[in-house]
Amino acid sequence: MAMNQMETVRQWLAKADHVVALTGAGISAESGVPIFRGAGGLWQQHRPEDLATPEAFARNPRLVWEWYDWRRARVAAAVPNPAHLALVTLERSSSHFTLITQNVDGLHDRAGSRHVLKLHGDLWQLRCTGCGNESHNTDVPLLELPPRCSCGGILRPAVVWFGEALSGKVLRAASEAAVQSQVFLVIGTSALVQPAASLPLLAGQNGARVVEINRERTALSAHTDISICGAAGELLPQLVAD
Ligand code: OAD
């Protein structure tokens, strides 16, 4: 199976004017960054409502920051893997390519992807809950928990928590890219969190070939043109190789 499917996807990619890739935590798994759901996933050890909601942060900013500080340290110790690098190659070789990620780890940036639509924000951006100012910060560990803004306000990670809205601008750009794409790759996401999970469906409804790459079948698999089971770090480099 897999060889024929891989060849078909390679041909689709070669012919497409506009390619979109949507990534999830699975693309960073081979870099050693924990995923959320399934065996060993973060949401098996922690309750999202204790750590990833505005209410949790208001209740105990230090506890929430301890968890984010730990995650930042995990990511800082990781390096982009061949799947991240394959998407850099795809960006360079495609006439029009859009990378959309649910990940907050910044590994696409570190791999060298130029334009990344970050649906769920960025672990390395901090936002003041007082004055709203945003700053880039790569300190690991952070010196003070919770960190504070020069205005005295408490800083939070500029990520999207449960119950919060995504940036309208980023979501609009992602939706437009989905509508215009001819090939839509969905890589390493359980496709359970909205609105990200509806982007491949939107692409498919507008004529794109939807291709999934995941270690397991997901809620989306039945709605794709091709669903390839395997590790992103092994499959993606084969898809973009000359
Ligand atoms: P999940 O943890 O829900 O799903 C990770 C997916 O990656 C699973 O379907 C795995 O089968 C797959 N996977 C694991 N290793 C892989 C590998 N090496 N190659 C290919 N696939 C692999 O992560 P997301 O779908 O990204 O939200 O989760 C979506 C959102 O839920 C996250 O952005 C986060 C979380 O709560 C926020 O933080 C707002």
Give a brief description.
The protein is α/β, with parallel strands linked by helices.
Walk me through the structure.
The chain has 242 residues and is an alpha/beta fold. It has 2 domains: 3-33 and 80-120 and 166-240, TPP-binding domain (Rossmann fold), CATH 3.40.50.1220; 41-77 and 129-159, SIR2/SIRT2 'Small Domain', CATH 3.30.1600. The protein contains 11 helices and 9 strands. It has a 6-stranded parallel β-sheet with strand order 3-2-1-7-8-9, with helices on both faces. A hairpin with a 5-residue loop joins strand 4 and strand 5 (134-136). Helix 1 packs across helix 11 (232-240) and helix 7 runs parallel beside helix 11. The longest helix has 16 residues, at 61-76. It is elongated. The two termini are 21 Å apart. The model has no long low-confidence stretch (mean pLDDT 96). The protein binds 2'-O-acetyl adenosine-5-diphosphoribose (OAD). 2'-O-acetyl adenosine-5-diphosphoribose is lined by residues 24-26, 29-30, 35-38, 41, 52, 102, 120, 160, 188-190, 192-193, 213-216, 218, 231-233.
List the helices and strands and how they pair.
Blueprint: H1 2-15, E1 18-23, H2 26-29, H3 42-45, H4 48-51, H5 54-59, H6 61-76, H7 82-93, E2 96-101, H8 107-111, E3 116-118, E4 121-128, E5 134-136, E6 155-159, H9 168-180, E7 183-187, H10 199-205, E8 209-214, E9 226-229, H11 232-240
Parallel strand pairs: 1-2, 1-7, 2-3, 7-8, 8-9
Antiparallel strand pairs: 4-5, 4-6
Helix pairs in contact: 1-11, 7-11, 9-10
The structure holds 2'-O-acetyl adenosine-5-diphosphoribose.
Residues 24-26, 29-30, 35-38, 41, 52, 102, 120, 160, 188-190, 192-193, 213-216, 218, 231-233 line the site of 2'-O-acetyl adenosine-5-diphosphoribose.
